[in-house]
Amino acid sequence: MFLKNAWYVAAWSHEVTHSLQQIVVLGEKICVYRNSQNEVIALEDACPHRKLPLSKGRIKGDNVECGYHGLTFDCAGQCVWAPGGGRIPSAAKVRPYPVHEKYGLVWIWMGNAAIADADDIIDIPNFDSPEWGINRGAAMELHCNYLLMCDNLLDPTHVAWVHESSFAQAATKDAPLKVTRTDNGVIVHRWMMDVEPAPFYKKIVEFDGNCDRLQHYEVRYPSHALIRAVFTPAGTGGPDGTLDEKTFVMDSYNFMTPTTETETRYYWFQLRNIRPDDEDLSRMMSEDVRHAFEEDRAVLNEVQVGMTTKTSPHIDLSIDAGQLRFRRQLEAMIAEERMVDEKMRA
Amino acid sequence: MGGAFRRFRVARKLPESSVITSFHLTPADGGPLWDMRPGQYLTLRIPLAEGPVLRTYSLSCPTEGRDHHRISVKREPQGAGSGWLHDRVSEGDVIEIAAPRGSFCLDQTSERPVLLLAGGVGLTPLLAMLHALAQTSRRVWFIHAVENGEVQALRDEVAALADVSGGLITALNVYRTPSEQDRATARFDAEGVIDRALLQSTLPLDDYEVYLCGPTPFMVAMWRVLTGLGIAPARIAYEFFGKGGSLAALAATPAPLVQADRRMPTRAPQSLSKLDFITDPDARALPERPAQPGLAPADGASEVVFARSGVTVPWSDAATSILELAEGAGLAPAFSCREGICSTCSCRIDEGSVDYFSDPLDSPRPGQVLICCSRPTGRVVLDL
């Protein structure tokens, strides 16, 4: 079950080229390519004749030609040539998907095209700011349902056990969590006051001594996460903190695209407010983050297997409140969307 | 997300002041008007050259007995949506609209007196509420804070409702910078802003429900005045223009918001200036609905009878939940999350009722309660 009326990440912009390729989003096979204007085109990847994927065919100018009998489709999915005497059958078309390029990513709208609005793509302040550095992330395939990754990103507690060597510090084991429902998702956060910075951050922050640390774990519908880390000299943090000129903020953006019910493509990048042009720092952060995410992947792949083959019930703990509230609201949104779809069809 | 758009015709475009224009909208698809609750808004799909955008506008009309919906829109200097409506849309045009939404609605089950505080164009949802209240016997104060008579919209409609209310509705206009003409025609009741002194001198002591809508600085100021007068936050419902946050958290933040809509304290580096609520994510919490009537907090008179165990325990504030009370009395009820999400602690209630201090994720089945996130309201008998 997926929310359809939403923007998902289809690919990194650089992954989509002038040749045809197939991607899978929400279980739907989609043929993507760039036309002569360099625009990204996304079409249902099945010729309406015998359902050969169009991605097995070839590009003809801006159009796509099926590799079986040459049916040719324009960028809007309309058939412009079919064999058999020139007349084009009225059902000879494939579904076009709205796409939009932003933040170096190709975004795709999987629902009712009439209400696709590129303004609804997540807002990322400071993405182009010269004061902010970025380490462009990568993508990885997770062999688990996308909501398990969303759970992980609403769960500051797992850090103490899964990321012991990087993001964890003693206080991450038991500081209390606060769950907040917002108008577009859920935030789980906590301030840890006057603690030693975790190993990963100790290498980066530009002040000595203890810090006040904020873990802000936020997931917005359908499956986009902002993980904000704030490290500020002890005494300048907390809900009413004044912060400090040395305050370090890292905003980690994470986008989960369900491929199928049990497969997920996971995209990320991080923005930071210090040393924007320091390439070594960017590289180090990329490597450390990738290493940490590999740790998550190993756990989640096993959790997927464990949860689908369980022989005794699982339990929920208080630390799961944020994830479960997120899942419940998303389920309600999906149910509402289906109801509207059925009404419109009736 | 979601929601089907329908086509509506602009039957009438009516200037209400120098900056606010009303649009009367009738279905162009042969369908009925939407069902709406007083206080809700419509979502309009605005076809701009660079692509469509969605904008929301509160309904300013009565919810019943009309052949059209009405929105009243202020022209904003940089507003793409309001600019399009004011400049490009004419009577007869067809626009796309999604169904009314929003939880900032008049509680029509309550009988308490109502205070409606509007700042500028924020009067629109409150005017829809006023129309609904005019059909009841509730006492209503409608106070509209605006710059002056030139920009104020819909003053006469409010005044007309008050005139025929038999004294149940009192409407007051507070002008910050009245013009000579405003003075000559006595269009306003008070000069300046809505402050503590004005409310104290206007309102008799009573148990009000308050609905607030206006620019954020206005609402922060009202929140401080109202809570300063002892009105419980749970009795104050409010709606921000566009995206919001928690008014309680904003009001607790020392001044910066009012200066330049900047929420960053001064010692933070400039690089953080675009980030909202950086130190207090909780300030983005969804506004809470006013508390349900009849849910008194647990007090010393409450007690819990654990019937199966044969134990009766008076409620004590040393316990945060019935579960803790039970554990303190030596019982060991089943639990897992202790947060109202897993339902492991669900148990049968045979008498009395409980008050949830944290909403259960799933409502317990009828006749059952979750004891990990609730307190007794009076005497309660549980099957434990």
Described by the principal axes of the CA atoms, the overall outline of chain B is globular
Q: What is the CATH domain class of the largest domain in chain A? A: Alpha Beta
Overall domain count of chain A = 2
Structural class of chain B: alpha/beta
Helix content of chain B: 10-25%
What's the story with the biggest beta sheet of chain A?
Answer: 8 strands, antiparallel
Could you give the distance between the termini of chain A?
21 Å
Number of helices of chain B: 9
Counted up, domains of chain B total 3
- Approximate strand percentage of chain B: 25-35%
Question: What is the count of β-strands of chain B?
Answer: 19
**Rg on CA atoms of chain B, Å:** 25 Å
Organism (chain A): Paracoccus litorisediminis
Protein name (chain A): Rieske 2Fe-2S domain-containing protein
GO molecular function, one term (chain A): oxidoreductase activity
Keywords (chain A): 2Fe-2S, Iron, Iron-sulfur, Metal-binding, Oxidoreductase
Q: Which tags fit this structure?
A:
heterodimer, A: 346 residues, alpha+beta, Rieske Iron-sulfur Protein, Naphthalene 1,2-dioxygenase Alpha Subunit, Chain A, domain 1, 2 domains, eight-stranded antiparallel β-sheet, four-stranded antiparallel β-sheet, 5 helices, 20% helix, B: 384 residues, alpha/beta, Elongation Factor Tu (Ef-tu), domain 3, Rossmann fold, Ubiquitin-like (UB roll), 3 domains, six-stranded antiparallel β-sheet, 9 helices, globular
